Amino acid sequence: MAHYKYHQDEEDTGPSKSELKRASHALQDLGQELVALGKERLAKVPMDEDLRDAVKDYQRFPSHEAKRRQLQYIGRLMRNVDPAPIRAALDAFKGVSAVETAKMHRLENLRTKLIEDEKTLHDIAVAHPGADLQQLRVLRRNAIKEKEQNKPPRAYRELFRILRELEDGTAGEADEHEHDEAGDEE
User: How many CB atoms lie within 10 A of CB 120?
Assistant: First the structure.
């Protein structure tokens, strides 16, 4: 009967060796994602300075073996850190880029549809009442000419930029700002 009691006490001591190993691997995977980030995104991730320095050191190391050892060190440091805010920041980066990619594809499709059919201007006018339809019409015409004459796609790119500004709600702000500055000079 004492054997049974010992076995029961053993279960109450905490996570199993397998659970600890899985948690350790999860932290190493998180560390792997951190070292793959660029400087700007890395700066936005909430973490202590020791971990941030270790990640920056990893990124500087040229040797595979040095990187392997540094990644193990990062894994050890992560045992003392709450991984939830780091995971949330990394997930936000993934979500933002997925949303941005979808938005870019939607705008590219709208631009293609506009170039193929001028009636798309009506849809744009309904969705964005402040849109400068004359400017869009001129850019559409120029984009078609550029393609026919194998010229650089300046109007094609400008069309995308304006559609993006309309979608973001920033269309015309630069023009208004320039107008304000011109008014200040008088």
Answer: 17
